[in-house]
Amino acid sequence: MDVDVAAYRDRFPIFKNATYLNSCSQGALADTVRGAMDHYMDGMDELGSHWDQWVGKQEEVRGLLARLFNTTPGEVAVTASASAAIDSIASALFLDDGPRTVVTTSLEFPTAGQIWHAQAARGVSVVHVPAGPGHLLAIDALAAAIDDDTALVSVTHVCYRNGAMTDLAAVIELAHSRGVRVLVDAYQTAGAVPIDFTALGADFLVGGCLKYLLGMPGVGFGLVTKEACAALVPTSTGWHAARDIFAMDIYGYDPATDARRFEAGTPVVPSLYAVASGLDLLLEIGVDRAWEVSSNLHDQLRAGVGELGGTVVTPGGTGEHGPMIAIASTDEHALVRAMAEDRVIVSSRDGNIRISPHFYNDGIDIEAALTSMRRHRHLLA
Ligand SMILES: Cc1ncc(COP(=O)(O)O)c(C=O)c1O
User: Fold this and answer.
1) Is the CB of 88 under 6 A from ligand 1?
2) Phi, psi of 235 (to 5 degrees)
3) In ligand 1, which atom is closest to the CA atom of 208?
4) Of 282, 309, 331, which marks where a domain is finished?
């Protein structure tokens, strides 16, 4: 049975003050997520250090992420950010005299691009395949860039600047047919678009929990297949990545056998509380249902922007976009500010404003955004 998402709206106090349409930057704060942070603080007053509960929270988050992405907890590394996950994976690559090129795209978030370029010190070169028409990555262009020296294909699922979505199944099939591993940066889709890590077949999938996963900054994740865990030993590490974190051994390096080997030091514990609570709530609603809600709102938004004579930059075909819709502006910063004065919260990148609904938004929110854009029509391109 469909979850009645309207019944959840009151759980997000921001809607009393504003039309919040910026989940691509930070998800709206739920009452239970705030409550979980309070619970952590109460524990500090009552118990001081309560390590057992903290480690338990890390494991709870791992289990919830595994459920969300249909994988096993052993394939989930809980990290401090998406960057930390990519960095730890990168540290385990290029350690032999094998291939040394990373093939990536022009659509990546800076962190992925920068981490691959930082591997130049290990003799790695990076090839960026430019996106084709409509900001979509053409599989032919990717195929042409992969050669015998390709060690990894690294793609974003959805581009943070324009909302275009990568055809992951095609990328993974292509790369694997050439014997090349694939890393997916799913930060802009995690929690908004259904992702089944097991069915997908990517070797690595990274993201973080503060956007559509309803959490707070400080918790990211790296999903790593069992095969990749067995084959790769990170050199970027820490005691929480050890096989036995309480062994306290300073005379050797004995990493966990599963994806925990891609973790590092003390987790951002307060954020784990928030993230566990956010994931609980999202799993109650279901990502399928969330995607259904935001897809309907996209249709309304695209039609309204068309009526205003504006330009939706994000491609519109099935499988061509994620939760965020980018709209061209002559001055995106001014438009974000003007809309904020109308109490409509959106964000901007690269000449576009970004409107990113989630399950807690409704048609009235989209109308409010359209009314505000109409008022500031001169800032639409
Ligand atoms: C697609 C994408 N990748 C990576 C990041 C950065 O993640 P982190 O700050 O957790 O490293 C973001 C942040 O907005 C993002 O949108």
Assistant:
1) no
2) -100, -15
3) 10
4) 282
Say how many Å lie between the CA of residue 46 and the centre of ligand 1.
35
pLDDT tens string 120-154: 999 999 999 999 999 999 999 999 999 999 999 99
pTM of the model: 0.98
How far apart, in whole angstroms, are the C-alpha atoms of residue 372 and residue 381?
Answer: 15
Q: What is the CATH number of the domain that holds 339?
A: 3.90.1150.10
187 C-beta closer than 6 A to ligand 1: yes
Note whether 358 and 257 are same-domain residues: no
What are 88-121's pLDDT values in tens digits? 999 999 999 999 999 999 999 999 999 999 999 9
Residues 6+ apart with CB under 8 A from 288: 194
Do 191 and 172 share a structural domain?
A: yes
Cα(349) to centroid(ligand 1), Å: 13
Verify whether ligand 1 is closer than 6 Å to residue 109 (CB atom).
yes
Residues 248 and 134 in one domain: yes
